[in-house]
Design brief:
Elements: H1 5-36, H2 39-59, H3 65-88, E1 110-111, E2 114-115, H4 117-132, H5 162-178, E3 187-190, H6 197-210, E4 215-219, H7 220-232, H8 240-246, E5 249-255, H9 262-278, E6 282-286, H10 290-305, E7 309-312, H11 318-326
Parallel strand pairs: 3-6, 3-7, 4-5, 5-6
Antiparallel strand pairs: 1-2
Helix pairs in contact: 1-4, 2-3, 5-6, 9-10
The site of zinc ion has 6 residues, from loops.
Length: 327
């Protein structure tokens, strides 16, 4: 993973803030306990003095074993008494202990010699925030999705009316975001323009973000333009490709609207394939029909896309419909 140092620095700062905040919380705990149980202040002083004496003995040489032992026993006894006093007064027995946001790494950011997952998810979150800045993801929700905008008349030989079909699509999307977990299978949304593909994929995105997962939203032309620029111009500031690979949920909008080039085709195949092998889902939406996708992208990409949940969208352009209702 080659995240940029900028996001590492942001995560380090975040970690420092958490540590400061937790030190402050512990200080408040101590103050409160000492106010409620004044003996505790004296006992904590004794503990500190014992600790100081211990370090003097340990620094000096000679037959200090016995002294060390005595002080240790003394300290253990004081600690036990403090715990007793705390619980007698309705506090938790660990009320004076250091507070950690992450028990795994105890807010050091390092676990078993590696960056802790709490640190890495901060790095990822900062990078996603950066990439999503322009998408307005928070403006789209399931609540504002209006199913009555789809016609309730059967057309052609379809067994469902567009509204019935879209009700199923809607329910699938709601459940997908509600049960979101990793690994899972992605979604391919297809259908003409203005049928709500972007709306529903962003609604899923904002729900999944709320659960604490990292989500990237972007249109295929935008994201691929970024990736290509970074690929050919090493000085670019961001590092989009690895985030597209590693984020928990990738929402790739408007597949097929990007420039048709060898580079884009190869990158897309690699992206879709790598994510699928890791079980990282993507929501891909496209105005293309399945046969158009196959024609443009070939068998390899097509066969990968077909393993995703296929959601065809039905109806007539919602923008037109909404404008008609306004008049
Ligand atoms: N079912 C719906 N209820 C309310 N607004 C909708 C619905 N479907 C689409 N829209 C709105 O119509 C516009 C076009 O929808 P969009 O999701 O961009 O379509 P698509 O991505 O399929 O082209 C957007 O402003 C969107 O919020
Ligand atoms: Mg769209
Ligand atoms: Zn941690």
């Amino acid at each position: 993973m080659s995240y940029l140092s900028k996001y590492y620095t942001m995560a380090e700062n975040e970690l420092n803030l958490r540590r400061n905040k937790n030190t402050e919380i512990q200080r408040e705990h101590i103050e409160k306990a000492e106010r409620t149980i004044p003996q505790i202040r004296e006992m904590r002083k004794q503990l500190a003095a014992g600790g100081a004496r211990l370090s003097v003995i340990l620094l000096g040489s000679g037959s200090a074993r016995q002294a060390v032992k005595e002080i240790s026993v003394e300290n253990i006894e004081i600690k036990r008494k403090i715990k007793q006093l705390l619980t007698d007064n309705g506090f938790d027995e660990n009320y004076l202990d250091p507070v950690f946001s992450c028990e795994k790494c105890r807010d050091t950011g390092i676990y078993e010699g590696k960056r802790c997952s709490c640190f890495m998810s901060d790095v990822q979150r900062f990078q996603c925030d950066d990439l999503n800045k322009a998408s307005g993801m928070n403006l789209y929700s399931f609540d504002t999705f209006d199913i009555s905008l789809y016609p309730d008349k059967r057309s052609g030989g379809d067994s469902d009316t567009p509204r019935q079909a879209m009700e199923k699509v809607f329910r699938y999307c709601v459940n997908f975001s509600k049960d979101f977990h990793l690994p899972c299978n992605g979604i391919l949304m297809s259908g003409k323009t203005g049928l709500g593909k972007t709306h529903l994929s962003l609604a899923i995105g904002s729900e999944v973000i709320k659960k604490g997962y990292s989500v990237i939203y972007g249109s295929a032309p935008d994201l691929l333009r970024k990736v290509e620029k970074e690929h050919f111009n090493k000085e670019e500031e961001t590092d989009t490709a690895p985030v597209l690979q590693d984020c928990d949920l990738l929402i790739l909008d408007d597949l097929g609207a990007e420039f048709d080039s060898k580079f884009n085709q190869a990158f897309l195949y690699n992206l879709i394939n790598t994510r699928m092998n890791k079980g990282n889902p993507a929501i891909i939406s496209t105005n293309y029909t399945l046969s158009e996708i196959k024609e443009r992208y070939g068998e390899r990409i097509m066969s990968r896309l077909l393993t995703m949940k296929n959601l065809p969208f039905y109806g007539n352009d919602i923008r037109v419909r909404k404008n008609m209702l306004k008049k």
